[in-house]
Amino acid sequence: MQIKINRKIIAITDALLEKNLLEFIREDCDLTGAKNGCGIGACGACTILVNNNPTKACRKFVKDVIDAEILTIEGLENSDGTPHPLQQAFMDAGAIQCGFCTPGMVLTAHAFLLKNPQPTREQIRKAITGNLCRCTGYQQIVDAIEMASKYYSIPTGE
Ligand code: FES
Ligand code: FES
User: Fold this and answer.
1) CA torsion, points 31, 37, 43, 45, in degrees to nearest 10?
2) Is 106 touching ligand 2 by the criterion CB < 6 Å?
3) How far, in Å, is the centroid of ligand 1 from the Cα of 157?
4) Do domains 2-75 and 85-151 have the same CATH topology?
5) Where are the domains of the chain?
6) Are 96 and 137 in contact (CB under 8 A)?
7) Ligand 1: distance of its center to the CA of 119 in Å?
8) What is the CATH number assigned to the segment(s) 2-75?
9) Whole-number Å distance between alpha carbons of 96 and 91
10) pLDDT-based confidence at residue 154 (cuts at 50, 70, 90)
11) What CATH architecture applies to the domain 85-151?
């Protein structure tokens, strides 16, 4: 059994199957970008992409994602280690304050822009409703996603 995380194959033993997916990613894979905000599927801080679909890892088990392709925030950067254009846009737009919501917010936005490269601000707002931010008031987050959208209509080299 295996899972692909950030393009790397991870072997899964029977003992791991019942483990909470967020704990597995943070503790066993040492990928701590996904955060535990509420643990009950309400805040989106733990969002990862499973086969490009935003998924709240706190509500899943390892057994739910066998053979899936997972992307965490650590896997989004460009192959040369520079920030992905969406990450750069979050920085440029001032869309990060405490940063707790940011990994989940960015991954939700990434999945959304892959499917909707030319969204309206209203569509962006709707797309991020499952991700709560206590700091920014959302305005700058919507700005960042809008700014980055131009990179999604052309190949990004991924
Ligand atoms: S920690 Fe998973 S939704 Fe809040
Ligand atoms: S930047 Fe603090 S929760 Fe969003």
Assistant:
1) -20
2) no
3) 31
4) no
5) 2-75, 85-151
6) no
7) 26
8) 3.10.20.30
9) 7
10) low
11) Orthogonal Bundle (1.10)
The model's pLDDT over 24-71, given as tens digits with 9 standing for 90+, comes to 999 999 999 999 999 999 999 999 999 999 999 999 999 999 999 999
Q: What is the DSSP string of 76-144?
A: TS-TTSPPPHHHHHHHHTT--SS-SSHHHHHHHHHHHHHH-SS--HHHHHHHTTTS--SSS-SHHHHHH
Amino acid letter, 108: T
Contacts of 104 (CB under 8 A, 6+ apart): 34, 35, 44, 45, 46, 47, 48, 54, 131
Q: Report the alpha-carbon distance of residue 65 to residue 96 in Å, rounded.
A: 30
Residue that is written with structure tokens 């409703």 in the block: 129
Please state whether the predicted TM-score (pTM) of the whole model is above 0.90.
Answer: yes
Angle (deg, nearest 10), helices 139-148 and 102-115:
40
Q: DSSP string covering 44-74, please?
A: -TTEEEETTEEEEGGG-BGGGGTT-EEE-GG
Whose alpha carbon is nearest atom 3 of ligand 2? 133
**Which 3 state secondary structure label does DSSP give 3?**
strand
> Is any ligand 2 atom within 6 A of the Cβ of residue 101?
yes
Q: Is the dihedral of CA 138, 106, 151, 119 positive or negative?
A: negative
